[in-house]
């Protein structure tokens, strides 16, 4: 807000709400180039002028028909500036982008919306390429028609984009069904637990009726701790708070001179901000601990066994949990879906029997059964099994936490792509027509990798983008083929329509 005030922007208002006319002020409109948004601008100038003039900024390209629509209105006479800025996405974190459309997947499986929504999505991916400064070779999951059509539409838009003169990396388009496990597991890292347990709304979490902003640029503690396991987070918070209090105690001692008092006054606000930041995270971690039941440890072990396929009798393993009357319907549905993914579908009779025994209300069974619309096999032989790259196993001795054994398939996929080992039976390539820049060819500049997941991005996959880019992900050597070593030298950016948390995914399945 302070940055806006510096630019003399004194009022920010929602276009959808009734606003007081201010004909003495110039107005900046920041909208998506859609008829509904343009109508709101035009309505401000139908009879009287809402503002002195219009400075119109659009997230991306204004189609010709809408340009004509705008030009024919009275509002066009008040336009002082019109600019397309090509940011039709939300930069959620430095390596994570969202298209702010949780209902997107539902709409692309409805024929009446499908092409229009995929076309819009291709436009948005085009603006991401512009933001990153180049064109991309395209890889897509060829078994999934939505991935095929989206890749084709995106390739067309990238080819037509004259602002992209060189190829700087790869864009991979993959369906959520490529790894159905990741959004359903209890992930015990700080960020994932905050989103799952405290139901964070984007980057805002509510504690004791207070809205706390979790922003990687403003909150260094959040940026450094969010991808760590909660056991490590608790230790680090306690140690950092203790160290900071000791430093502040030492700082408060002065020799009484003007110089030392001035130094104290200069440094105290900084310490106060740091203390407040740590206290905020201690409050969040305490809230997580309060909501963390001891049985989650045991439940996590079962979930990890299902995801890692390391259990001989998976149905037998989940029965005690399914029959547990204290376990919520959401938890039971997560377990049943994990079982379906593990078994690549259950016999319909067995699935119905499990649902009956679970005590889940019958009108909620559709949440489990509707998973089939998301290309995941719930009932045996109901859908063709989606082909996937081989899962690379992490050595047991490399694992610090047994409740976090599962490594997402998206992490594997990024590694396979980096090593040029993608299976062409699963992924098809549409190369860019633009030349590769020499600095990437020579290895003096990192190539960029964009991963777009149709159907939501899980926190574990967001974490992978950071860990791989920063070389803090340490796989065992067995992950790699003999002809490729473990060195990873790409900048990874990952995104989707929304963050795929268990409750958001179950809601998405229920809405079909």
TrEMBL record:
- Tell me which UniProt keywords the record has, alphabetically: Coiled coil
From the UniProt record, list the coiled-coil ranges.
234-281
Looking at the record's lineage, which domain of life comes first?
A: Eukaryota
Q: Per the similarity annotation, which family is this?
A: Belongs to the STXBP/unc-18/SEC1 family.
Q: What is this protein called?
A: Uncharacterized protein
On whether Protease is a keyword of this UniProt record, the answer is no
Question: Which GO biological process categories is it annotated with?
Answer: vesicle-mediated transport
Which is an annotated Pfam family here?
Sec1
Asked if Coiled coil is a keyword of the record, the answer is yes
- InterPro entries given in the database record: Sec-1-like_dom1, Sec-1-like_dom3a, Sec1-like, Sec1-like_dom2, Sec1-like_sf
């Amino acid at each position: 807000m302070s940055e806006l005030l510096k630019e003399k922007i004194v009022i920010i208002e929602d276009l959808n709400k009734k606003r007081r006319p201010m004909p003495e002020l110039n107005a900046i409109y920041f909208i998506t180039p859609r008829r509904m948004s343009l109508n709101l601008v035009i309505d401000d100038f139908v009879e009287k002028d809402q503002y002195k003039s219009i400075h119109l900024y659009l997230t991306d390209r204004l189609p010709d028909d809408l340009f004509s629509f705008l030009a024919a209105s009275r509002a066009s006479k008040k336009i002082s500036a019109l600019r397309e800025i090509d940011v039709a996405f939300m930069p959620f974190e430095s390596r994570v982008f969202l298209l702010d459309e949780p209902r997107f997947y539902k709409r692309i499986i409805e024929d009446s919306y499908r092409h229009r929504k995929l076309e819009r999505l291709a436009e948005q991916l085009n603006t991401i390429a512009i933001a990153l400064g180049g064109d991309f070779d395209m890889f897509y999951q060829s078994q999934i028609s939505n991935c095929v059509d989206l890749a084709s539409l995106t390739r067309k838009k990238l080819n037509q984009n004259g602002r992209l003169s060189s190829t700087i990396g790869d864009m991979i388009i993959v369906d959520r069904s490529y790894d159905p496990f990741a959004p359903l597991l209890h992930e015990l890292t700080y960020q994932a637990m905050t989103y799952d347990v405290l139901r964070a709304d984007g980057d805002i979490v509510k504690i004791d009726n207070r809205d706390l902003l979790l922003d990687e640029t403003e909150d260094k503690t959040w940026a450094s701790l969010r991808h760590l396991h909660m056991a490590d987070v608790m230790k680090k918070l306690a140690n950092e708070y203790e160290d900071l209090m000791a430093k502040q105690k030492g700082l408060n001692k002065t020799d009484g001179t003007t110089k030392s008092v001035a130094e104290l006054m200069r440094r105290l606000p900084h310490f106060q901000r740091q203390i407040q930041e740590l206290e905020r995270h201690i409050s969040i971690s305490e809230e997580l601990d309060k909501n963390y039941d001891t049985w989650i440890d045991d439940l996590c072990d079962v979930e990890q066994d299902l995801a890692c396929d390391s259990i001989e009798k998976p149905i037998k393993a989940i029965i005690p949990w399914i029959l547990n009357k204290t376990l919520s319907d959401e938890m039971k549905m997560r377990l049943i879906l994990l079982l379906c993914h593990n078994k690549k579908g259950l016999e319909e009779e067995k699935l119905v029997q499990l649902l009956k025994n679970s005590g889940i209300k019958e009108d909620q069974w559709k949440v489990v059964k509707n998973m089939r619309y998301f290309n995941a096999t719930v009932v045996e032989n109901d859908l063709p099994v989606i082909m996937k790259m081989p899962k690379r196993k992490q050595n047991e001795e490399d694992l610090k936490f047994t409740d976090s054994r599962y490594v997402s398939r998206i992490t594997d996929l990024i590694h396979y792509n980096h090593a040029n080992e993608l299976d062409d039976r699963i992924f098809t390539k549409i190369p860019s027509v633009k030349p590769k820049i020499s600095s990437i060819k020579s290895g003096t500049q990192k190539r960029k990798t964009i991963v777009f997941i149709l159907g939501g991005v899980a926190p574990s996959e967001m974490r992978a983008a950071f860990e791989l880019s920063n070389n803090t992900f340490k796989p065992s050597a067995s992950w790699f083929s003999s002809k490729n070593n473990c060195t990873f030298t790409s900048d990874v950016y990952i995104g989707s329509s929304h963050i795929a948390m268990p409750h958001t995914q179950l809601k998405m399945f229920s809405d079909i």
